[in-house]
Every structure is written in C-alpha cells, then in structure tokens.
User: Fold these one by one.
Assistant:
Number 1:
Amino acid sequence: MIPVIISGGAGSRLWPVSRQSDPKPFLKLSDGKSLLQNTFSRSLNLGQPISSVITVTNEKLHFRMQNEYQQVNESGVPCDFILEPFGRNTAPAVLAAAIFAQEHYAADEILLILPADHLISDQSAFSKAVADAVAMAQDGYLVTFGINPEYPETGYGYIEADKERAIGNGYAVKRFVEKPNLELATEYIASGNYQWNSGMFCGQVKTFLEEFKLHSPNVVKQVESCLAVSELSNLQKNKIIHLEPKSFIQAENISVDYALFEKTNKAAVIPCSIGWSDIGSWLSIAQTLPLDKDGNAVIGENILHNTKNCLVYSTSRMVATVDVNDLVIVDTPDALLVANKNQTQDVKHIFERLKKVQHPTSDLHQTVHRPWGTYTLLEEGPFYKIKRIEVKPGQALSNQLHEKRSEHWVVVDGEATVIQDDKVIKLTESQSTYIQAGEKHRLMNASDEVLVIIEVQCGNYLGEDDIVRFDDLYGRN
C-alpha cells in the first residue's frame, strides 16, 4: 500500500496558529505532535506493508514536511514528494500521485488518499476500516470512508449508501450530496443511510487511472502533459517531482469528488466510527481535548479563575482569565484571537481581511522555518532588524549577498563556520563578525550541535527579498 498525503489549504479558520506559509497541518496538539506527523504515523501503523509515502504539497513546504517526517519515521519508510507551485485542488493532486505510483511502483498498488490535517482517535477501528477498504479495492472498487454521523452537521458533505447493494463490509455509493441545511441534515441522520464524507479514499492505482480516463479525460491529459516536462530529482532514497508551473496551471482546478467519485459506477463506501475530525475550527479542536471540571480545554500555561466552557491555547506565554464563559482564546507571539466559542467558523473572515491588506500575520509567524533551521524575529525598527538564527547540525545557509543591508553576527551557542568572500572564519560562543552590504557570505554549521546566532541587520531596506544567491544546498533561486 502507498499512503498519499494531500496537503493543500491554509486553514484560515485556525488563525492565528495557522498561516499561509505555516498552515494547519503543522498545528501541534496536546501530544506535542503536529496533525501532519499524526497522519504520517497513523498511515504506517495500519497493519499493511508500505512501499512508500507520497506527499503532494506546495513546493515551499517541502523541507518543513520532510523534517517533520524525519522526527517520527523510525522505520525509514521512503518519502516521495510531488511539489506543486500552487494549488489546483484535489483531482490533479490525486491523479499526479496515481501516475507517479504506476511509473515508479506498480499498477496494482493500493493508494490510500489521506488529507494531511485530519484527526483520528481510534487507530484500531481505522485499521479495520482500511483492511476492509483494501479488500474492496482489490476487487476493483474505489472506496470512500463514510463517517457515521453523530449529529446533523451542516459543514460536511454527505454520502448516501445504497443499502440494497452490499460490497464486502460496505455498500455501493448511491450519491454524494453537498453540505445541506439543518433541516436536510436532520433528515439524513434520521434515515440511517447517510455518512459524512471524510475526504479519504482507497483504490488500486490502475482503477484510479482507468476511471479518471473514462470520466475526466481532459484532466488526465493536462496532468500527464505537466508530468512529462516536470523535473524529477532524488534525495537519498526519496523521489521528488517539481511540477512545472506553466503546464500545471493548465490543469483544471477541480476536486476529486467532482472529477471522479460523483461520476464513477465503481464507488463504494465503508461506514465507520473512527473518532474522526477534520479539525475545521477552534471549536473542533476544543472537542478533541480533555476538559477540566468547568468544561475548559487548555493547551499551555494558564491560570483560570471562575472560567467556564472556554478553550485557552498558548504555547509561549502565561494566559490568565477572570469571570469569562464560552470563549476561545488563542495566543501567539505576534497575534491574539478572542472569539465566541459558538462562532469560530467566522475566524476565516479575520484571516481574509489580514490577507487582503497583506498583513504579515496572515503569512508567517515570528519564527520562520527554513531548510537549514529557523529564524525568529526579535525586534525591528525603520532601519534595523534583530533575529535569532538557529542552524541544524551539518546544514548551511546559501552563499549570498545583500545589496541594501549589512549584518552583524554574534554566536551565542555552538560553533559557526563563516565564509566571507574567500576567507573562512571559525566563530565560537560570544565571538562575532561583521558583513558589509555587497559582501558575499555564507553561514555554516559543521558541528554535531545546533548553532545559535543573533543577527543584527542595518540598512534602508530590510526585506527578505534583498538576497542574491550564488549557491544553495536546497536548490532555491
């Protein structure tokens, strides 16, 4: 089996933790692992032999995801990546993964399509559902996982099972329906024939490709054309495809539900109860956490006084509350959200307004992840910026120069190897160097320990785009 992890949107309803360049799959819950890491680990513990894990995601997130996988990939399963220059919905993503799997693995491999940012609390029940789905997929079906509904939810699509056509431990799909109003959702629940559409699918590579060609031939041509001109590279035993932007933009922006599952006569559904949540809002996060005696869900350090039915989320600062009820309080170093617990879906409107005016809190956190490590913005003014830079062992920043700013580096922990023009300088704790504007330079960590420096930038322009790269270990321009 090949799990295919699809990571797309920004998770705007989970702002301020989820940002455009630091989206929902990286959100960490009370176990200390991100949603992405939970999805990855879950896929390796299904009792199925795994050939590879294929991830389809934005190219800017590649190294961050790879690093997240390395932290939990104890068995060393190969991790292949299909990197999108921009999103074109789930049909091109699933199709690209199926074509890739046929070319590099086998046509009878089972693909298990998983969103990167869902939560499943009952691993054994999910493993049983996947085993049932694999058996049905080997008989030529494309299988969906229908979640037995717990209440009349209006935020999910539904699947109607044809109870007169049993297939293995599931049923043929009678139809897919859009997100209903409350009255319709209540009718669906009462009928007993409907499940929530989880967005998870299972099928053989060859079945996916045959049905795509039958029902969405144009999408197949578009994706095949893109893959034909896209760059394939290898990183150790992992394969990486960089989808070519000019051809990928020709691919139709359409979901796999519309392009394939609503048209095929091979769709089947397995009704299951697996403790599933799509983590679509702060309310859904609160529902996954243990509650104190007053109904509060908390992550981080806090003191709550006469506080009831609240979610308090903070990973960096103490949060104190007095005499409040039914609130969501989410604190990050550069943004604070306070919302009515019953209106958390509307957080997306805040995100869209911030994005429209290009406010930095819509895109990045103060700590920004790079392939070599992280940098944290500590303070800035009109003509200066102060950062804390952390470089992982054996990693290096690009060989670069800045035209409009100078930089002063002070080592506070570890050992730095600095190349300034053709000079190699070794710096240890409390030692420093000065780099003039226009001077070619590189920061490297050749040691086995993390390197931490404080960088002070000075100049008339301090934007991240003031960079000319000459050489980069990670293929960035």
Note: The chain has three domains: 2-277, 282-351, 367-471.
Number 2:
Amino acid sequence: MRWGLISDVHANAPALKAVLEDLDRHDVERVLCAGDVVGYYPFPNETIAMLRGRRIISIRGNHDRSVLHVDTSRLNPLAGDAVLWTASHLSEESRRYLGSLPECTTVRSDRQAMSVYHGSPQDPLEYVYENKAVESYLAMARCSILVLGHTHIPFVKRFSSGLIVNPGSVGQPRDGDPRASYSIIDTTERTVENHRVGYDIEMVARKVAEAGLPRWLLERLEAGI
C-alpha cells in the first residue's frame, strides 16, 4: 500500500494544496500527517478543511496544542505571536477538530505497524534529526515503521527492525529548499521517496503581511530555513 506522509503544515494552505495535488499524481491511497497542522501562517481554517475533506489521518503537534490551549509558554516570542493570532482566528469547528486529534497513532498496512509521533515516542517536543534517530524508538513505539515530524527536515533511516521516516515540512521547510516537502512510503516494497513541490510563496508572503504576522515568518519561508 502506498501512503503519503506529511507534517508541519503550519496553516500554509497554498503549500498543502500543492502537495495534495502532487500526491494525486502518485497513486497514493491514504495520507498520514505527523502534526503541527496550524501555527505560523494565516490559513488555519482552510488548512483544517482540506485535511478533513481528504480524510487525512493526523496527530496533534506542539503548535496545535499551544493554539488549542492558548499557551505560548514553550515557544519563542515570534512563534507565540503566531499562536495567539491563530487562536483568535480559529473557527469553532476547527477548534473541535484540533481537540479531537490524538497525541500519536498507529495504523496497520501490509501486516506492518506504522506509528506516527510528532517529536519522538519518548517526548513530543524532542527534535529527532537523522543522526539522533535510533533503533530503540521502534521498540518504544512497537512498530516497524516510525513516522516523525517537528524538525522540518526530511530523512529516512533504516535499521534491521524497521525504518524511521521524517517527511519534512509542508508549510515551512528548514533544509535550505523552500519548496513544500512530503514523502511517499510503499509498505509492500518498504521504499520511501521524498518529493518537493513549488507553490506561490509570494502570495503567502502578502497574506502574512496583511495579517500583521511577524516578518520573520516570511524570511524563513523564502529562504527555506
């Protein structure tokens, strides 16, 4: 079975739309999201509507949790400003959606367990980069495929007991490539491909400026850092 893997959309609806259109061209049956649906960019309700419309299986990330509880205590001040803006512009339907998301989830595909966490199985706020991804996380999550988000940087790391995948960020990549990032995993063949998709970043920049969100968000988006 072919799954689309996305993460860290951060309310960047134009980027998500481009990714979903690209996924449609790759014969993907279902899509998993590793959290941070909202935060940063000014399209929270549109983003959630797309995820719900496509029946995407998602978990809750730290920004989703911060928006839901209007709590900026564990974020830097600029990210905190975006959380407060998002919380004040979220519809009740979108708020209920965020409240319904689990902290993690596991799906079965081709007799394999594929688990999804935002940070890591031991800490939802842990940044697991490729050099920090260890085989013991597979045992902690009781799976053979572990999908992570949070870092905004894609990687695949293989072990004898399975693999760990981060699809990178749809909404705010941080690996120097500003194009939206996502991955496709084939659980039959145990292959993973990372894909990059361009979209109208200038339009998102205009909307960020119109919303009065921090200019830092534009700079990160344009540079992919």
Note: The longest strand covers residues 180-186.
